[in-house]
User: Fold this.
Amino acid sequence: MPMVSAPVTRTNAPPTGASRPYRGVFPVVPTIFDARGELDLAGQLRAVDFMIDAGSDGLCILANFSEQFVLTDAEREILTDAILDHVAGRVPVIVTTTHFSTRVCAERSRRAADAGAAMVMIMPPYHGATIRVAEAGVFDFFAAVSDAIPIPIMIQDAPVAGTPLSAEFLARMAREIEHVAYFKIETPMAAAKLRRLIELGGAAIEGPWDGEEAITLMADLDAGATGAMTGGGFPDGIRQIMDPWRAGDRAAARAAYARWLPLINHENRQCGLLAAKALMKAGGIVACDDGRAPLAPMHPQTREALVELAAERDALVLKWAR
Assistant:
């Protein structure tokens, strides 16, 4: 079984082998808990090692698919330090720092940058189902965070925020706010929005990225996406799509997308954020795949179908720890 290496002292240097613009497959790292609901740091680091070995070009931590909304601030800091220490520059790491408060988001982002993050990912400020911020306030929010840090910002444009972000507005922020340069587009008709964003923003759009577990990846690549932020269970499968695309072989990319799409679809539509952990447990990488309460467990038949689809595609997650 691959072994977890000892933590390495951070130097805050840029990741080795990676430089801007960041491109490729940057899956979300799930947060690993034990059966009591406590952080399982040993399991967490095994999950990170698997994801790197599976071909991840980079990682994203503390995202919604990491269950960031069930973590305390102290746990966020523990995970940030432990993961960045352990990755030790092998790949760039994006730290999600979303918070409604401009001040708190800026402080989180500054701490992530100081710890060695390559980028921060942030949603527009929102709270619950009804508390939203007008466009001028959203602009000021991202401008203030940008002023606090020296690393790029990825804006996560997803329906969960309930905040309309037009391509015109996103392009304006890219042009006028220093560190706003990356965009994870997860809204309906994402490809059309990506195409318009690139058209309006030009060189200011350093990273137009796909999200939503890659369920729209092929259309988004056709529209100009250069990165994919997916679930963490099968980076090797997403690489099989992205690699030929980047090499100019669209036919091979389409064939790989067709092969992996049933698994991508099952994760996105049936499993949600527990999928990566369920696959990692099935493969012996982690001991527990529970979400933290009150998240409901995955139905056994849903889990069985997930593992079956992964096995049919020879996903590394089921073999890496054997």
